């Protein structure tokens, strides 16, 4: 895998940030290279909007995250230094499981681009500048790959990866750094990994002086800021205090971003685990903030694609359940099961089948007693159920 990390926007220069005016979104379909325009209401509603997180079928519980900022911190900033995520968190633990590495594919090779986060069953939030040339609304790549919990140069064997079918982003994004894009995947990886909720608020006081978290893939060695020789192959964790806010930004004064982190979410835990924006520029670790008018369009599009009439019906039956001998996995929907994965409740894969049928008989006579997860892939959908072995 080679590195093609965008450098020109997550740079060391300061850009002016003005209040964002509501305007049309663009929806790009990779297969047809077609752009559709989505009009917006033209207003920026007051109040706070959001939807909750989900922990996913194949996660191993929720991690205990820091509740206050402790050292070592970046000099002059209320923000931690980056640490390897795997040192403190399991790959399959939530919310680490929601972090994704974004890559492009060309000539059979993959190139490292940016970071992102799962924000629905099949959607990822990242930065617009990861996909576009400077000053352009055109998508510059033919094919993208998203890999959750990618680490140490390896795909996560439980979550695997997914292609990207569509991208959704505000038009004329560079005019005021509306640097947020939503990617729709061809697989429902979020059902396995879980996902962060999204939230936006016009109440700026509720956003500052709060503790936020981040998982990202820094990919460039910038010794003036950080002595670590990042290469984009490893997932890092950091956290700290947002202490400045602009009309469309969240900032950590004195902080700095590293190329490759572009698109990684700044998120925190209130009642739910929710993302507030994505890193866009290095100076003061500046994040493009999700605004209410953007949220309205994004949320409507996520709901529409998740409940598309063309989506295959999914209804999984495991019987008998509980079981003490063997059991059958049956998809009541119209599609064949392309892949069936049996894993422990902690995420360890026990066995994988590729039945290409609607039913699969599984002999569990050698399985220790406990709770297991059966995950099925069918027609681009991912769904699962738990089964108890006695």
TrEMBL record:
Q: Annotated Gene Ontology MF terms?
A: serine-type endopeptidase activity
Protein name according to UniProt:
T9SS type A sorting domain-containing protein
Q: Does the keyword Signal apply?
A: yes
Domain Secretion system C-terminal sorting spans what residues? 318-389
GO terms classed as biological process: proteolysis
InterPro entries given in the database record: Glutamyl_endopeptidase (IPR050966), Peptidase_S1_PA (IPR009003), Peptidase_S1_PA_chymotrypsin (IPR043504), Secre_tail (IPR026444), Trypsin_dom (IPR001254), TRYPSIN_HIS (IPR018114)
Q: Which Pfam families match?
A: Por_Secre_tail (PF18962), Trypsin (PF00089)
- The Peptidase S1 domain extends over 107-282
Organism domain of life: Bacteria
Per UniProt, which keywords does this protein have?
Signal
């Amino acid at each position: 895998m080679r590195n093609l990390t965008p450098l020109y926007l997550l740079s060391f220069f300061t850009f002016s940030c003005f209040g964002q005016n509501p305007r049309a979104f663009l929806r790009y379909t990779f297969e047809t290279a077609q752009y559709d325009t989505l009009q917006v209401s033209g207003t920026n509603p007051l109040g706070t909007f959001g939807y909750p997180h989900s922990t996913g079928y194949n996660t191993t519980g929720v991690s205990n995250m820091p509740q206050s900022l402790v050292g070592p911190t970046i000099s002059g900033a209320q923000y931690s230094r980056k640490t390897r995520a795997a040192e403190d968190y399991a790959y399959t633990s939530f919310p680490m499981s929601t972090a994704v590495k974004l890559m492009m594919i060309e000539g059979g090779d993959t190139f490292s681009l940016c970071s992102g986060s799962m924000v629905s069953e099949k959607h990822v939030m990242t930065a617009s500048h990861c996909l576009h040339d400077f000053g352009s609304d055109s998508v510059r790549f033919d094919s993208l790959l998203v890999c959750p919990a990618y680490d140490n140069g390896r795909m996560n064997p439980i979550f695997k990866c997914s292609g990207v079918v569509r991208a959704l982003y505000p038009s004329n994004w560079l005019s005021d750094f509306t640097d947020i894009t939503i990617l729709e995947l061809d697989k429902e990886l979020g059902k396995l990994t879980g996902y962060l909720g999204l939230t936006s608020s016009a109440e700026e006081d509720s956003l500052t002086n709060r503790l936020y978290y981040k998982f990202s893939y820094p990919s460039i060695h910038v010794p003036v800021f950080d002595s670590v020789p990042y290469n984009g192959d490893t997932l890092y964790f950091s956290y700290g205090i947002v202490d400045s806010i602009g009309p469309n930004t969240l900032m950590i004064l004195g902080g700095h971003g590293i190329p490759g982190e572009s698109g990684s979410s700044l998120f925190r835990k209130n009642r739910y685990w929710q993302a507030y924006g994505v890193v866009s520029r290095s100076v003061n670790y500046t994040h493009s903030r999700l605004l209410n008018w953007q949220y309205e369009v994004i949320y409507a599009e996520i709901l529409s694609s998740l409940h598309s009439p063309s989506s295959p019906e999914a209804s999984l039956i495991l019987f008998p359940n509980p079981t003490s001998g063997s059991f059958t996995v049956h998809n009541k929907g119209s599609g064949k099961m392309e892949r069936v994965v049996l894993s422990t409740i902690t995420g360890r894969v026990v066995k994988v089948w590729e039945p290409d049928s609607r039913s699969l008989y599984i002999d569990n006579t050698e399985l220790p007693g406990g709770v297991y997860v059966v995950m099925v892939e069918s027609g681009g959908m991912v769904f699962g159920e738990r089964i108890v072995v006695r």
